[in-house]
Write a structure and sequence with these properties.
This protein is α/β, with parallel strands linked by helices. Strand 4 (104-105) and strand 5 (109-113) form a beta hairpin. It has one domain (6-277): 4-Layer Sandwich (Purple Acid Phosphatase, chain A, domain 2). It has helices at 21-34, 51-62, 82-87, 133-144, 174-182, and strands spanning 6-11, 38-41, 68-70, 104-105, 109-113, 151-155, 186-191, 198-204, 207-213, 227-233, 238-244, 276-277. The protein is 19% helix and 21% strand.
Length: 286
């Protein structure tokens, strides 16, 4: 790999408790063989935040042969213990505490966290995203402290706006966050939650922000099979390759505002463990 090239594996929504072991074995092997500079896991490590699910997630994540940063997802907040949810919501992450919301310095690029999962909200559906002012201020301060010329990849769980997938984000104050990120050297915002990959450019009053979503590595698939994103930064350009476990053709994951050349052409899959790159497909005309 060229000295100025950085490779990041972007995983999300592993959902231990309903994990796909074949997908997890495949990704772990890919990490061992391709040696990415970092792994960003954008939340929902578990199904119901049970102790046994966190134990399995912790063992798998700590076994990965790369630096890892982990975001908190809505499924990772205690479901059945309201006292713990309100007063110690991150206690079950203690086995991987050094990785939770960790900023990773890759020289020309930094991974910076932005929390979107909260313990309570003034609305009925607590599974949706919420960007608090404190979380946004912490993220912006980290970006503003980066050396001149360095770009940031901001890691969140919920997409900061709706992205046209079956799953929804409905992230409160997401537009405000996007406007602030547009004013800073942010190469992209990495997210999960909706279980289908996407790559879109969001226009804001302060400029455009690229939003990249990873699919799921669980059995809770929606439009697409289990997948992760392989992201490369060459010092000036970010490229994304969606790596699918199954060789399945689908239009459902395609969004009509994918940036030009963001999705590379499809390559033939391996007949034993097929992996493909998803091509851009124009949406059907209604």
């Amino acid at each position: 790999m060229a000295s100025d090239l950085r490779r990041i594996f972007h995983l999300s929504d592993i959902h231990f408790g309903l994990e796909n072991n074949r997908a997890l074995d495949w990704v772990k092997q890919e990490i061992a063989e391709r040696q990415p500079d970092a792994v960003a896991i954008t939340g929902d490590l578990t199904m119901r935040a049970r102790h046994r699910e966190f134990a399995a997630a912790t063992a798998w994540i700590n076994s990965l042969a790369a630096p890892v940063t982990v975001e908190v997802g809505n499924h990772d907040m205690p479901y059945f213990n309201p006292v713990e949810r309100f007063f110690a919501p991150y206690r079950r992450f203690r086995g991987m505490a050094d990785k939770v919301e960790k900023e990773i310095d890759l020289g020309c690029l930094s991974l910076v966290p932005l929390k979107t999962a909260v313990r309570a909200q003034p609305r009925l559906n607590w599974s949706k995203g919420w960007v608090t002012q404190a979380a946004l201020d912490q993220c912006l301060a980290a970006i503003d402290a980066l050396p001149a010329g360095r770009q940031a990849l901001v890691a969140v769980h919920h997409p900061l706006r709706e992205v046209g997938t079956q799953g929804t984000a409905l992230t409160k104050h997401g537009e405000r966050a996007l406007r602030e990120l547009a004013r800073r050297p942010v190469a992209a915002v990495l997210s999960g939650h909706v279980h289908d990959a996407f790559d879109i450019m969001e226009d804001t009053a302060e400029g455009p922000v690229r939003m990249i979503g990873a699919g799921t590595l669980s059995k809770r698939t929606r439009s697409t099979p289990p997948s992760f994103n392989e992201i490369e930064w060459d010092g000036s350009r970010l490229t994304v390759c969606v790596r699918n476990l199954e060789d399945v053709e689908t239009r459902d994951m395609q969004i009509d505002d994918v940036p030009e050349n963001a999705m590379p052409p499809r390559q033939p899959g391996d007949p034993v463990a097929p992996v493909r790159q998803i091509p851009r497909v124009d949406p059907p005309v209604h």
